[in-house]
Amino acid sequence: MTPTWTRLPDLASRAVGGSVVWANDELFAERENLITPAEAEYRPHTFGHRGQVYDGWETRRRREPGSDSAVVRLGLPGVVRGVVVDTAWFKGNYPPFASVEGTHALGYPSPEELTDWEPLVPKSPLGGDQKHYFDVDVERRYTHVRLTMYPDGGIARLRVHGSPVPDPDLLVPGALDLAALENGAAIAGCSNDFFGKPANLIAPGQAGSMGEGWETARRRDDGNDWVEVTLAAPGVVTLAELDTTHFKGNAPGWASIRGRDARKDPDDWFELLPRTRLQPDTRHRFRVEGPEATHARLDIYPDGGMARMRLFGSLTDAGLDQLTARYADLTR
């Protein structure tokens, strides 16, 4: 059974700004493939000057003792809840063992300057052409992870699922996207995610295709679909952006946004944006007003897909204190 933490964002993905900053060897297949958002592919009998072309990271056969490693800078630094090491299509050339370590670094160090590596996944056995799921139970913020395989071979993908933790020194409390993953927001629930994960809705950057947004199945009843977001911290939303870019024949016809303050009454929803008509393939922006909120709910009518939702506003003093305290607790 797939672990529930796989529904959390992939902190290492290229889609959220991750980068493979170093590897000691990548003779057969490039290290950058490790964090490609799409599943690994295989094209039979596709040979280059270095042999069969693999959609993954593959090192040469070692003729001396040792191991091969790659270092990934997380696009979204945060707490790691689980790691997926995927050996898809590597059948006679996968590593028999692998481990994963993490570190927290300030600023933008070079790979050589990274120190204080801590174990996230101990040296563990791997099989060929399969996904390996490893739970991580460490309450600490990480900025980089190091994947090591013993002794050599190929790994298709590395997924590092977890909860983003922003650096409060890099936030502007009076002008902030309160619904952004990179600022600490998270998906609290949704009605349907058949075609696209709701976490895509609050991911960094612009969606490159429909597959990078949130999309529901076609409804055959009188209801509507929705997604609820836990805001980065308590704040006041003043501008909402609903982006249906790339959704042309499947954009919602209408949408509305509500907020609530779970610290006071978790069942007391208030209106931020009334039910409003949307256009396909369009970036909509709306001025909104409302009291302090800890959560927001987007309702789409009746169903469909949306690329991004942004909820710009300001943190309350309590909200900034909350983010600052969490960062300090996870970086001690």
Automatic annotation (TrEMBL):
GO biological process, one term: allantoin catabolic process
EC class name: hydrolase
EC numbers for this chain: 3.5.3.4
Chemical reaction(s) catalysed: allantoate + H2O = (S)-ureidoglycolate + urea
GO molecular function: allantoicase activity
Protein family: Belongs to the allantoicase family.
NCBIfam families attached to this UniProt entry: allantoicase (TIGR02961)
Record HAMAP family: Allantoicase
Protein name: Probable allantoicase
Species name: Saccharothrix variisporea
Lineage, top ranks: Bacteria, Bacillati, Actinomycetota, Actinomycetes, Pseudonocardiales
